[in-house]
TrEMBL record, chain A:
The keyword Cytoplasm does not apply. Gene3D superfamilies: Periplasmic binding protein-like II. Keywords: Signal, Transport. This is Sugar-binding protein. GO terms for biological process: maltodextrin transmembrane transport; maltose transport. It comes from Streptomyces filamentosus (Streptomyces roseosporus). GO terms for molecular function: maltose binding. Pfam families: SBP_bac_8 (PF13416). Belongs to the bacterial solute-binding protein 1 family.
From TrEMBL, chain B:
This is Sn-glycerol-3-phosphate transport system permease protein UgpE. PANTHER family: ABC TRANSPORTER PERMEASE PROTEIN MG189-RELATED-RELATED, SN-GLYCEROL-3-PHOSPHATE TRANSPORT SYSTEM PERMEASE PROTEIN UGPE. GO terms for cellular component: plasma membrane. Keywords: Cell membrane, Membrane, Transmembrane, Transmembrane helix, Transport. It comes from Streptomyces filamentosus.
């Protein structure tokens, strides 16, 4: 009986332990190449649930597969919210696909981390040089990615509301200054018609924070990091101009111009008339125009001293370093670089075409088109987020600091702490050299 | 009079508590039949909780168009059910060995098992991805079986890592200890082995504990989100919770989200209602309640 007791006890606990560890009989390694089975290549995109953009990707794949018989590309789509987690997990298991899309600011990090391989798309229909700078991803002077489109930030407002309150509608030649903008918000607030006249999507999360607000910091003269070598944020992110931005940003809440945390759908609130001016992406331009018609004003960013600024770089295509069929992957990348696909993306998703030639074929973005001004914003005001492998960390720190500032933290302290953390991260990673 | 007031006060308190828990579900269900504009329009009033305005099933239709919801639902039922069944077997066996048998080191093992409760999943998620990618896999290739490496993108990678569960072992252990040991001794006298005692005596007396573990295993399996995103690439293998993020794209469909949420909440509610009595009984009898 004792023997049976021990045997059952050992077997029971061992069964639980073995299952818990999911280890047991590990064998072999994950292999050093992935993403293709012979000439069948896997492609990942972040567009699950976004049929407009996904349909364009499907079309390119279908055309490519039909255009030749050697390679076949297979699509796997992921939801955008946690796409990066999926990629990072796959990279750690060396299971990356051959082709994948990547959010522009992450290109340097993924290239440095060894996820991506440099690409060569010479000979494709659209030369890389023809693209908006913000739609090309480079690291250490090598091309790693390109996008078919970019997006642009702008202020959206109702002309009638601005006129009613005697507020000048600014142009690219004469954008709002800080004083003018503050005065406009004060007038709108004083009217009593808006609880919060300004809507800047402060209920958003993740990359929205650096994308939406760091251009304003840059317009003040600050930045997320000293771009000269990308070796320190101290003196830049917590410098005088950055702190001035922090004070101003906080004042929007303390003066009641903007909600500390906006609603679940800021654009719906703007269209419902709850806010007078919305800082938003070009992706909502069509919806705004359909609802407001000629009353819609698309307004350039405020010039806080160093010129109007918006963020640049959206989703781009890249090739994984572990791709077992790089030749095939590059063939797909080259194939996708046809003007018609740049046009398809813009039409399907209301994004800004990455080339001028494509823009002339999209009614809204043609010179004189209702959204042509957004192309000009992207051309003139776009500032790339820091091109450094440290960017994902910088992004998180900036988000935390900005949220703390809106919550009432001293801007100098919040930005100082963020700068210190970023410097520590840079030091820990030996400035991401190599 | 005082006792009547007390009773009324007690009832009022319970009603308020019931509303606190029920209203979000009512809001979800009611909103699933409204347009996005109406959902937002009703937000400032009690209409948000009432089926008023133009109601339709459009959100449900659109939801099925946007997400392969039926497939996701089927996957989750499969993954959660197998995890529950295996979890009950494996964890009860482990707990039986720890609670009913005498062998050296069992206290150390039990302490170690309980100690793992403090380790959050997120801290070992990535190493676990690496581990599961090293495991051997027997798969069908055409008409042949072949050995390969790596469990990524399979059903089992969503099930087996979550079968053994420290809390379930602890819970069964506590419950098994409340069953008189004399039953074991009588069974041994009659010639029963340990497995017979486990199968014929202890488990039949542990219905409430099984129900509780079933619920507590089912819930995280059903709500699993991060893990499948990390280890499953094929859409046809994804569970329901991943589907919710399909809606958080540029054009968020709030009505569709509510329709989808309603669809995936109903099975959980049904399970809880079915096991409610056993659940409460076992929590009370094991002394695990807060």
């Amino acid at each position: 009986m004792v023997f049976r007791t021990r045997r059952l006890a050992a077997a029971s606990v061992a069964a639980a332990a073995a299952t818990a560890l999911v280890a047991g009989c590990a064998s072999g390694s994950g292999g050093s190449s992935s993403g293709a089975s012979g000439d069948t290549l896997t492609l990942w995109t972040h567009n699950a649930g976004n049929s407009a953009e996904l349909d364009v990707v499907k079309k390119i794949i279908k055309d490519f597969n039909g255009s030749q018989s050697k390679y076949k590309v297979e699509l796997q789509s992921f939801p955008q919210t946690d796409y990066n987690n999926s990629v990072v997990a796959a990279a750690s298991a060396r299971k990356l696909p051959c082709l994948l899309d990547v959010d522009g600011p992450n290109v340097a990090n993924w290239a440095w981390g060894g996820y991506l391989a440099p690409i060569d798309v010479t000979g494709s229909q659209v030369p890389v040089e023809d693209q908006l700078d913000s739609t090309v991803g480079t690291y250490n002077d090598k091309l790693y990615s390109f996008g078919h489109y970019d997006v642009s930030l702008a202020f959206f407002a109702r002309k009638s509301v601005l006129n009613e309150h005697g507020i000048r509608i600014p142009t690219m030649d004469k954008p709002w200054t800080k004083d003018e903008f503050d005065a406009a918000l004060a007038k709108l607030k004083k009217s009593g018609k808006f609880t919060y006249p300004l809507e800047m999507g402060t209920g958003g999360s993740g990359e929205w924070w650096p994308y939406a607000y760091s251009p304003q910091l840059q317009s003040f003269g600050g930045d997320l990091i000293d771009r000269n070598g990308y070796k320190t944020a101290t003196g830049t992110l917590d410098g005088k101009e950055s702190v001035e931005w922090g004070d101003w940003f906080q004042s929007l809440v303390t003066k009641g111009y903007m909600a500390k945390k906006s609603g679940a759908d800021p654009n719906k609130d703007f269209l419902a008339g709850k806010s007078a001016i919305q800082w938003d992406g070009s992706w909502n331009a069509t919806k705004n125009a359909e609802k407001l018609g000629d009353d819609l004003a698309i307004i350039p960013p405020v010039d806080f001293g160093k010129g109007p600024k918006i963020g640049g770089a959206s989703w781009q295509w890249a090739m994984s370093s572990t791709c077992s069929n790089k030749e095939g992957a590059q063939e797909w990348l080259k194939f996708s670089r046809q003007t018609k696909y740049f046009v398809d993306y813009a039409k399907a998703t209301s994004t800004i075409p990455a080339t001028n030639e494509a823009a002339t074929q999209v009614e809204d973005y043609q010179p004189g088109g209702r959204f042509a001004v957004l192309v000009q914003f992207a051309q003139k005001y776009a500032t790339l987020r820091p091109v450094t492998p440290a960017y994902p960390y910088i992004s998180t720190e900036f988000q935390k600091a900005a949220q703390d500032i809106l919550a009432g933290a001293d801007p100098k302290n919040a930005l100082g702490q963020a700068a210190k953390n970023i410097d520590n991260n840079l030091k820990t990673n030996n400035n991401y050299s190599g | 009079m005082t006792s009547l007031l007390k009773r009324l006060g007690g009832h009022a308190g319970r009603i308020v508590l019931a509303l606190v828990f029920a209203l979000p579900l009512v809001f979800m269900l009611v909103s699933s039949f409204k347009t996005d504009d109406q959902i937002f329009g009703d937000l400032g009033s009690v209409s948000a909780f009432l089926p008023v305005g133009a109601l339709s099933l459009d959100n449900y239709t659109a939801m099925f168009d946007r997400v392969p919801a039926a497939r996701f639902l089927l996957n989750s039922v499969l993954i959660s059910s197998i995890t529950v069944v295996l979890g009950i077997i494996v964890n009860s066996l482990a707990a039986f060995a720890l609670a009913r048998m005498r062998w050296s080191g069992r206290k150390v093992v039990l302490t170690t098992v309980i100690a793992t409760l403090i380790v959050p999943f997120e801290t070992f998620a990535l190493p676990l991805v690496w581990w599961v990618n090293q495991l051997p896999l027997l798969r069908v290739n055409g008409f042949q079986l072949e050995w390969t490496t790596g469990w990524m993108d399979t059903y089992q990678v969503q099930i087996l890592p979550f079968v053994a569960n420290a809390f379930s072992i602890f819970f069964f252990h506590q419950f098994f200890q409340s069953i008189p040991k004399e039953l074991d001794e009588a069974a041994i006298m009659d010639g029963a082995g340990w497995f017979t005692i486990y199968r014929r005596i202890v488990m039949p007396l542990s219905g409430p504990a099984v129900a509780t573990v079933a619920i507590l295993t089912f819930l995280p399996a059903w709500n699993s989100y991060l893990w499948p995103l990390m280890v499953v690439q094929s859409e046809e293998l994804r569970p329901v919770m991943v589907g919710i993020s399909y809606f958080f794209q540029l054009n968020v469909g709030w009505g569709q989200i509510m329709a989808y949420s309603s669809m995936i909440t109903v099975p959980i509610l049904a399970l809880f209602v079915a096991f409610q009595r056993s659940f409460v009984n076992s929590i009370a009898s094991t002394g695990v309640k807060g």
